[in-house]
Structure formats: C-alpha cells, structure tokens
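WARN no homologs supplied; continuing
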Amino acid sequence: MESKNGVSEQQFTGLILVSGVDSPGITEALFETLSPFAVTILDIQQVVIRGRLILTVLISLSPAHAKSIEADLEECAAKLGVDIATSFESSDQSSIAAKKSLLHVVVLSQSLKPQAINAIAAVIAQDGGNIERINRTASYPVTAVELTVSGADLATLRSALATTGSELGVDIAVSLGGLMRFATKLVVMDVDSTLIKQEVIELLGAKAGVQSKIAEITEAAMRGELDFEASLRARVALLKGLPESVLVDVQSEITLTPGARTLVRTLKKLGHHIALVSGGFEPVIAPLASELGIDHMRANNLEIADGKLTGALVGPVIDRAGKATALRDFAAEHNIDLEQTIAIGDGANDLDMIAIAGMGIAFNAKPAVKAAADSSVSAPYLDSVLYLMGISREEVEEA
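OK structure emitted
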C-alpha cells in the first residue's frame, strides 16, 4: 500500500474478538465503530451458543489507525456490555489467500465426548491437516459437528478416521469440499433393515410357518457366510404354496425406519435422485416406492402360478453384483458421475455398490460392511445420512 507521497506504507492486520451475552444490535454497533476508518474486512465468523455470542473479525488497516480503533472499540464494548479484545500486527496480505483442496469431516454421535474430538483432531494433525473451522450442523436426534480441514489427503484421512470412529463409537464421514459437494447426487438405498425395519422374506416366512428357518439363512447370508443367490433361492423355496394375497398382506406390516421419510423428502426437495435396490421382492416394495415418490427401483420377482407362489424366482437375481449394476445404470440415466453417488446398506450383498459409490454408508451394519464402507451411521435414524452430506438440521426442517 502506498501513502500520499508515494512511499510504501506497512500494512497491519487486526483481529477483533467480541464475546458476551447476545442481544440485537451488537454486530451493527461493531461495524458502525469501524466504518469511519480506512479498513478492509478480510474474514468474519460469528456464532451464538446458548445465548452467548462469539464474533471474530479480521481486518486490514494502516498502523496509524490502530490506537484510534482500539480506543473506539473499548467505548463500544462498554456501551454494549460485551468484551472486545484486539490484536494488531504486521502482515503479508498474500498469507490470507483462500485455502484450496479443503476436506469436510462430519462427526455424528448420540453422545459426543471430548475424547472423540481430541482423537479426531490428533489424526488430522498427524496427516498434516489443519482445522480451519468447526460448526455444529445438528443437535437432534444426533449431534453432528463439521470440521473444515486444509492440507490433508482425502484417502489417507478417511482411512485413519474410519479406524478412530470404530474405536470410539462415533460415525465419521470425510468428503471433498468445493462446488461439487453441492452437485446433484444419486442416493441408492437397500430396503430390508435399511429403508424399512423388517426383512420382507421373514414376514413372508411367518405366513408359511418357516420364519425361524428363513431367519437363520438370512443371517448367514448377511454375514457373508453364504452365497446370496443360493441362500435366496433356498429361502424362497420354503415359501412354496403361499397364496399370492400374502404379498399384499405383508405390505401392511412394513414400517419405515425412523427418519426414512424425512431423508427422502429432503433429498427430493434439494433436487437429488433416489433409487431402491433390494434383494427383496418387487410386488411388496413397489407400492412403498410409489408412495414415497422414489425415482427408481430394482428388486427380485417371485414366480406365481394359479394364484400361488411356486417357490421359485423369475428373472435375474438382484444380488450384490446386481445392486452395483443397478447403481451404475441409474447414475448413467441421469448423467451423474459415480463420484456423486451415495450407496446405503447394511449387509454383505450391499458391499459391491458401497465399494463403487462416491460415498458408501453402512447403516447399522454388520462389522464386515462397516469395515468396507467410507462411513457409517450407528444411530437408528436414517435421516442422519443428510448430515454426512453436509446438510444441516435447519435445512432439513425447512425442507
């Protein structure tokens, strides 16, 4: 910066910290105090927590104005009944350039402890990252905190924090910043034990009196101990002879996972696309998809003859490979890159779609699925996925 006689004048930066009980007019009064001076605003952050205000302002100024600004700010603080601290120092303006390659780390917990933030901050530092900002995005039904991080590698930090989250019992998601974070997404969900609380085939098994046998096979398949297609065919065979009407009957027994309707409604309001992929059965799932207004669905079909289930399947089996194929197909239909897809599931047959999605989320999942996913949700609320996407509780309620 040059003075009037053409001599270069040293430039200062000033950090102003306002704290105290919040009330209307504090921000207005602060900037009214600064307005007569030749200063430039470089950064502003303000937050109110339980009625307490913290406002920080970084300004550029001539050192000749520093004492006058300090005096006026002291007078302003006395009038407002708040504390105003100032710090002025020589600074190279180039050091205040915008940070690039930012990452967003979202932490979810039903009971967030200091040890968790301590461990997460330590991992970020070990990866060479710096925490630029921290803000709360939700306090109900889970606490969600988002950290903006510079200088860290996505893959390395994501892997390290997955281990930390597992050890501490918190859910952590790491995603790239930038405009693409707000691009249109394709969200693909499993149905049984994800979108809904039940396993449809077990509901059908109850009608045939073979629920326990089916449950045993289902658990083994979800743990990855049995080939999904073979296990599915074995379970369907136990349904032979059931009347077709049971497909309608079990529809009334289905209950959505808490937060499922909120998740779908919010995603649709924000312009994202939603798909269901299921190892369950299309006649049972289709009415639910239609009711929720979900864009796409792919599931298995039961063979029916003379109004009864034959114990066989019709058409290709939607197994773990079939779910991944469905995700690719739906993404291509909307011209959405795989990096902008999100896959949510709980079992071994969801692993392939979780692996290829830009963000794979294990929802109340088996250990093998949690280990393979980019992030997980342990709380029983499906709309917690929204916080992992960087959507705040306030935005959810507005939608």
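Residues 76 and 162 are 47 Å apart (CA to CA).
OK
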